[in-house]
Design a protein that fits this description.
Blueprint (H helix, E strand, L loop, with lengths): L2 E11 L17 E4 L4 E4 L2 E10 L4 E6 L6 H15 L7 H13 L7 H21 L3 H4 L7 E7 L6 H13 L4 E5 L4 H15 L4 E5 L6 H11 L4 E5 L7 H10 L3 E4 L6 H9 L5 E2 L3 H18 L3 E2 L8 H13 L6 E3 L1 H9 L7 E2 L2 E3 L12 H6 L7
Parallel strand pairs: 6-7, 6-13, 7-8, 8-9, 9-10, 10-11, 11-12
Antiparallel strand pairs: 1-4, 2-3, 4-5, 6-15, 14-15
Helix pairs in contact: 1-2, 1-3, 2-3, 3-10, 5-6, 6-7, 7-8, 9-10, 10-11
Amino acid sequence: MKISNVECFPLKVTPQQAYLGGSVEGHDSDYYYRPEYRCVYSRKMETCLVKITTDDGHIGWGEALSPVVPQVVAQLINHLFAPLLIGQSPFASAVHNSRMYDSMRDRGNITGYHVDAIAAVDIALWDLKGNILGQPVYQLLGGAYRQSVPCYVSGLPEAELAQRCELAKRWQQQGFNAVKLALGYGVQQDIANVRAIRAAIGEEAQLFLDAHWNYSVAQAAELAQALQPLGVGFIEAPLLPEDIAGHRELRAKSPIAIALGETERTRYQFKPFIEQRAVDILQPDVGRTGISELMHIASLAETWNLQVAPHLSVGLGPCIAASIHVAAAIPNLFMLEYQPPVFAIANQLLKEPLTCTQGHYQLPQGNGLGIEIDEQRVRESVMEGTC
């Protein structure tokens, strides 16, 4: 049995509302700069799926987290990785991962789109192996520590604070008693926002914060000290991701756990944060690491008694399903992220929806990732042209 075809689908899906809020239509460009996050976003939902087929007709689907210009991932897979994969065994995923990583390693491409593309292929190979063997991915990873995966609602995309408070309470009424609030509007404003959310959801709810890399060590330490009485579970991305020393200093000062990792793609990038005791909770994203590397990262974290809370933002069906399988299969899970608007769009591209209710993802029970892609709908959303 050999890999016979590798096909990519860079997608652009139009949601009712832009990710993190805002209008979708009526702009000169889909891409725009969000100053509060110092990052470029798309008003549409963009990603890249990959489909790997064997010569006997088995199929595996993967996905790279590529929220802008997903054509880059498609080009890398089509022109660089496909020749390495076609004619090879679908079971040799570790070998394939090494060859893909090595293919550009000595040119400095040890992160970014190159590794995102590897992640997509890796997820597809795990799905493919599961479909061939008639087993779910979590079983191939060694079994499930849990049959449902606890999650927190990520982001409260409303324009006004009062509306965000009401949205948090509505999620509570549906059984979701953990939420994450976006910060980065100045220390005093952030403190006021967190106090309002805590008052709205009560003391028993879990509350997490995402600072989107906006603060200095001094500002983040001030924020953490002020927020400790409010029972905050973690502060995510408080400093610039390159600042390992700053995170180490902040962790020593902060009474609140420090979380980070969505920008890192390999165990090599997580290693200095872990060894220098600069982090409490790791947040690798399977759409940037792949399943294999995320398992390596989780194992490394376990040796330092650290927990893993996988990042999950705008990834669609394969990303979400892969995240659930990995979250079930690691012993040191903290919690998985849940993005309700993205989750709804992801299910539109699946023949049977994934399920998340009462604060938990349900573990897919089918073979591989346990999802069936609606390929016709996928093809309708493919972006035209190349980058």
